[in-house]
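Below is how a single chain appears once it has passed through the pipeline. First comes the sequence as given, then the structure the pipeline wrote out for it. We keep one example in the README because the format questions we get most often are answered faster by looking than by reading.
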Amino acid sequence: MVYLDNNATTPLDPAVIEKMAWFMGGHFGNPSSLYPIGREVKNLINEARAHVAAAVGAAKASIYFTGSGTESDNQAILGVIDALPDKREFVTTTIEHPAVSQTAAYLEGKGYKVTYVPVDATGTIDLDALRSAVTPQTALVSVMHANNEIGTIQPIEDVVRIAREQGALVHTDAVQSFGKIPFRADDLGVDLLTVSAHKIYGPKGAGALYVRKGTPLRPFIHGGHQERGLRAGTENTIGIIGFGEAARILPLHFEADSARLRRLAGRLKDGLEAGVPKIHFNGHPVNRIPTTLSYAFLGLESEAILLSLAAQGIYVSTGSACSEESEDVSPVLRAIGLRPEFARSTVRMSLGRFNTDDDVTEILRVLPEVVDKLRKISPWDPEEF
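Resulting structure:
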């Protein structure tokens, strides 16, 4: 198997599996219980919290566990909006993950003014348009740190500076940048920041939200007092322990992973552009997550490429895993000005810790053959593009 869809999810690291198995074997107490087996689990949760905090560059007290990156995004946006009832405006971009864009649509339905700031052809936010969009009535600006489909990295520090001019708070979805590029939440200057375990070789079903001290925020899940009153419900203890371990070992792998994956991704990019005619690269040429490669294979349908590769044990994506079943053109690709026929021919390849040179060799062997075969039976002529 050649797995090149690490932006969708990553395999569990063996150290994470070992830690979770150890925990499941003898720690079943409810962390809200006062007796020793409950307090022991609570202490392990807080140990995991410290590891996640260190990995995002923040104080332990600023980290709140959730059930996913999507939940963290919703908590950040709806929590701030609910805490600032006199401010009825929300600003975001045209290329956000559905966890943000669909929440924005929900707010529009509730009568809030939502402004979608455009991006350029590389997927980079238009800062002048952002400055025009933010007003004293803006409660929150939400701009993702790195795009999940094309990998473009946003100038979050500039976003924060512009938002602060009007007194607006800032949230960034850092799910795709976490563990791939170095950053510190405190240094970015944001008020809220989202991360997720299953993008850093941890388990699914565990996310976290960084909340800067003093940020007005109300819970949107109500019930118990868990997570210091912000997120009710008995914690996903197994997932949190796995998340903590994935975060703990992240710096142990970071430098070696970064250098090796940059080399592998560079080799894959060079090989594709030399070996496959009529392809178009999507995203910023430099200011992007290097392990994310998005290409339009002109004259083809992306699903045909995906299924042909899967039949040979190579797994890639057509875009966001959270919108893959939709027949609509990707909003991200539409926002960067890609023609619909280009967007429908786009395939995303994303590398991770367990990819090897052999994986790159295999896809560079198979993909040109797949594209050539499909183009011979395609109703479209790539020469038209």
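Residues 264 and 356 are 8 Å apart (CA to CA).

See the next section for the split statistics.
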